[in-house]
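lol ok so funny story. i was supposed to be doing the assay writeup but got distracted and ended up predicting the structure for this chain instead. priorities right. anyway since i did it might as well share w the group, maybe its usefull for someone
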Amino acid sequence: MAYRRTETVVARLAETRERIVVAALKLVAKEGYGGAGIPAIAAEAGLSTGALYRYFPSKAELFDEVFRRGSQREIDVCAEAASQPGPARQRLARVVEVFARRALKGRRLAYALLAEPVDPLIEAERLRYRLPYRDIFVGIIEDGMRAGEIAEQDALLTASAIVGALNEALIGPLAPQAKKTDQEKLIHGLALFCVQALGPMPGRKL
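and the output, tada:
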């Protein structure tokens, strides 16, 4: 008869795996991917290095899960901000401000998620996780076009450009060696740029 894990064993394994991911996410937020070594993560999780490898066979696989977890948390917050009522331009500005403010508050983690050199496996996930942000902006733009608040345009193209601009504009200020910046000015400037990317109100000339 094949061995079947009991519910208690399955729950214990899941709890330990979760503890490892939480420990890794904590260290990445503090030290970045480069500074979060497996021995340190194991110690933070209260495990031996060997025990950790039984849950995650490689550092790349563990960090891939950390990236997924950290990215999804930010996507969920931005989606919630987008769901709040208001004109399309106001909603877009709100999402941009939330994204930028959270990134600047958790600079080390944000830099790790956006730009820090990583394993190719994580880099692939990084590109994939830009798509939910793009889709959030597509939804806002399409809502605005239906309401007559935004001129007809290629919503996918505009949304993709906004995501690219956000990432590119924040990489420098988030970098570990970056000089101190006026965060409120940066956030306001980003929101203004992204709103202006929607073009003039329908009926108004450029």
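The chain has two domains: 1-57, 66-206. The chain has a mean pLDDT of 91.
back to the writeup now i swear
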